Request: fold
Amino acid sequence: MTGTPDTLATTPSAPRGTVLQVCPLLPSLETALATHHRTVRLTDRSDAAGYLAEHGDEVAAAVTSARIGVPNDLMDALPRLGAIVHFGVGYETTDVRRARARGIEVSNTPDVLTDCVADLAVGGLIDVMRRLAAADRYVRRGDWIPNGFPLTTKVSGKRVGILGLGRIGRAIAQRLAGFGVELSYHSRTAVEDVPYRYAESPRALAADADVLVIAASGGAGTHHLVSADVLAALGPEGYLVNVARGSVIDEAALVSALVERRIAGAALDVFANEPRVPAPLLELDTVLLLPHIASATHETREAMGELAFRNLHRFMTEGTLITPVPPATEESPR
Ligand code: NAP
Ligand code: 8YV
Reply:
């Protein structure tokens, strides 16, 4: 990781205390934390509960991943916690309202991963419509010689609906514009500065799309936003791409729709109970299954680690964060 400080210069308002590393993190981030701050790795403690009971009041900041967050029981065991720093843009695993009520600040890593997640969404969309991974399996099985691979579906010029036109949704739209697709979107608030058509609901979005791409935030507010009804509106010729969170889709309804061919296919980077993938999907050639890798490039993960470290370091030296999450509202992820 570049740009890590040599010294630990603090201001009078800087919090004093330990940094708690909640889960395994990017190695370079772990090294920076251990080098520049008194850091305790919770996962190294055979008796985590005992450690927290004895030393929980020494912890000033917690560093965690978007997948793990800081569960409520852990938050409660840290009475002097001042900041929760997430490695990742999603933070629905941490109860931000509960944290804020205690005066705990929360940060995430927006923007630095947007390009890679959007790239992967477009890759997944092309893969599932042109059946690239399926065709690769076909060649490897030795099926090419006797038979030609079945015809697939053209991507360029199709109608694509994006659910959640935030940073990643916009980046997906910008990329797909180069394919001459017709773009529409749905989010709770219509966006002023885009030429794409606004759909009033996820169902209306799906009904007018050949492909539904999910890029909305996770959490209670979007739980099962893509319901059986929305999948029915997408229809048997429709494709689904999900790079957001498994919780946004009713996964049981999705599995049935795919198995019964009520939608044409899906590219899925995220699942409801990761790393568990519903068994019926493993049998389907119409589904691309990815192990939550949308941000997983060397460049992006290093940039995420660097931003997470800078947030932590700023908090421990000046008492503020660089990229705090927006104020918690009733509509916030959680
Ligand atoms: P963002 O800029 O905050 O965008 C989130 C979008 O979701 C906004 O357009 C928001 O619009 C929309 N939204 C929220 N609640 C909604 C609802 N109930 N109905 C419809 N739309 C809703 O966040 P981002 O940086 O683009 O990231 C988006 C999400 O991608 C993250 O939260 C994370 O879960 C996921 N992600 C996944 C990976 C991966 O590895 N697969 C990597 C990074 C991020 P409104 O507020 O107007 O509704
Ligand atoms: C990471 C993500 O896989 O940023 C997010 O919200 O889901 C991904 O970038 C994850 O955060 C790693 O903890």
User: Anything to note?
Assistant: DSSP finds twelve helices and twelve strands in the chain. The CA atoms of residues 45 and 137 lie 44 Å apart.
